[in-house]
């Protein structure tokens, strides 16, 4: 009996992962980066699997994507949120160069004495 509960839970989580991937793909496929409406997402989901947009779970997945900042709502449309990441290499180089300048500055001071 417990094994069937685990199987049911794993199939539900697999369904959610599949719906999540399809929602992101629907938003990404919109021409001109205008964003996708809820109707557009529903049509895309139905094209992948018939009747899936009638299940309430896709709205929960959409809400989680909004809450986790993977998607943003711009007007009445959903767009993919792209984070502004700086390269870690640039940060390390700037910190290293500052440390080198401090060490070089101390050496110059000690030489002058």
Automatic annotation (TrEMBL):
Domain of life: Eukaryota
Segments of this protein annotated with the region Disordered: 82-113
Basic residues biased stretches: 99-113
Chain intervals with Low complexity compositional bias: 88-98
Protein name (Swiss-Prot/TrEMBL): H15 domain-containing protein
Organism: Araneus ventricosus
